[in-house]
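To: structure desk
From: M.T.
Subject: fold request, one chain
Message: Could you run this one when you get a chance? Sequence is below, nothing fancy, just the single chain.
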Amino acid sequence: MRIAMIGTGYVGLVSGACFADFGHEVTCVDKDESKIAALHRGEIPIFEPGLDALVAANVKAKRLDFTTDLKQPVADADAVFIAVGTPSRRGDGHADLTYVYAAAREIAASLTGFTVVVTKSTVPVGTGDEVERIIRETNPAADVVVASNPEFLREGAAIRDFKWPDRIVVGTDDERGRKVLGDIYRPLSLNQAPIMYTARRTAELIKYAANAFLATKITFINEVADLAEKVGADVQEVARGIGLDNRIGSKFLHAGPGFGGSCFPKDTRALIKIAQDYDTQLRIVESVLAVNDNRKRAMARKVAHAVGGNLRGKTVAVLGLTFKPETDDMREAPSIPLVTGLLDMGAQVRAHDPVGIEQAKKELPEIAYFEDPYACATGADAIVLVTEWVQYRAMDLDRLKQVMAQPVVVDLRNVYRPDEMAAHGFVYESVGRPSAKGN
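Reply: Done. Structure tokens follow.
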């Protein structure tokens, strides 16, 4: 099959490379000339484990190409995927569909023969209807089916998620469209990946509902963690105790500083706005968003409490800046409100992250950055572990204590055991677990 992928952001580039690896001929299109030039040089604009090798292998096999001009790729394509950004619109939280609709107009003008146009971007319910209207208005003669095929990729594990998915959701009632998308995903049949065919609007809502539910699980366990701290319980054992119930499951029950990234905050906001547009209230989702926003800022107060209540003139080392491990994505990362809160309290902040420093500098230009976690911790009155990178999971605790001004560690990801930290002489605070204090 011939595929045109419009957009070379996170979803577009990963999806395009994986489709090419299935054996399809894929052309990824982007208006950003510098990005396309970099891709031609073999430079990947995002950090995703394994993506550089996957792109290189399929470019070499001539199954994957990049261009700034969509006319020929669209004209030749059996399917055109729209994978452009849908950021939160300033002022109201709605998804900004400017790029989606602009892509639809350009695609319409280049269509030849039967083509399936597939929205892969995360879009509000009804967007597919508008995309179809735009295409038919722009090119009334087009033989086209507009479908929805939402992505369910986790940053840091996107290639695995694409090739071994829990499910593939295809939103179209058109048999020709179902056949084309079924053929595109046929290589996954050996993995017995379930393809779920639904109406287009149902597929659009599935994506938002899934992200909102996962965000709710995270927020729920974070609130339970706050209660656990007050009553002297261990939230990790609580999470395991409820997660062993297969009606609940253990995933996304890890207490921490709140969720961030490119999906959960944006999509929960957009879902709330969609509901309001249809005169419906999603009170649980509204609470999830409010609680999560407040939690991120509250983490700075947790650090202040660990060092005696006053951060003025104190040096705080922040380990981990990206919103999760195995990505350089800083979008809505909990580290941002944490650091700004620490600065507002008068602390001097220094930071380390294995891959996210360059992206972090754009968001937090006023702090000092270090290429080594021990150098970052040198002279610090407290360390805050924000992102659970594997590099932080087995640090030399004796060396760490030796270089610090005060042995205070605030572990927002519960990476270490309180008894172990106390044995090494640390004052140790974590999330939803009893405090520990060494001699």
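Reply (cont.): The chain is about 45% helix and 15% strand. Let me know if you need anything else for the meeting.
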